[in-house]
Amino acid sequence: MLLSLVSLSTVNAAPAAARKQQAAECYDQAAELHKLPPSLQPVPGPCAKDADSLRIARAYEHGIGVPRSELMAAQWYGRVNSNESLAWLREAAQRGNAAAQHELYNLLSLRQDPALEPEAIALEQKAAASGYPPAILMYALLLEDGSRVPRDVPLARKMALQAAANGPALKEVHAAFSLLVAIELAAPAPNTLQACYFAQLSHRFTPRYLHSDPAEICSPLKARQRAEVTALARQWKAGTPLWTAP
Fold first, then answer.
1. pLDDT of amino acid 183
2. CA atoms of 209 and 178, how far apart (whole Å)
């Protein structure tokens, strides 16, 4: 892959006040670009290097236009590791940019440094509290796992529902519904009917992910129940309430 990387010298020469504004603008631009498939077209201006790197890292992380690869995502995120790059993210995060807070959480987490853990968790918590869907989902995963924050499955379920309600607008929608399937099946009284519904939704929006194969999840149900749940999943539209099993 060939990228046209513009020199950052113009950023380094900018006055401190101007650099703060430019830092936020550069991250805003990068955050917008990572929503698109990685065409690898060069980004104009002094934001080029980080915008391209963040876009490609997100593409590999979520399989947008390229095969999903955690290793490749980590490598591309690793390219955004200069002091200047982190300064840009921190400036944008301090301004309350939820996307920047989430990306900075990703970068700090990849370093696996215990000293950075409190900052990383606090950033993701802020991004989730502001309503940023990817951060809401990630914090739900953290709450369900319980290894980095105190385990709270009811809150994890609530946040996963909040993230999943965005439907296809959330690139990780399959993960949101898969988490909900896992929570329903792991409950003291497993709700197979509800789990089947979430599995159907996961398959509907991202069938290439088989974490929640509806055929397997729904197999304990009667044929009539499976048909009814499948119909409900097909009727659901993003932004409307998700069905709750009786």
1. 93
2. 9
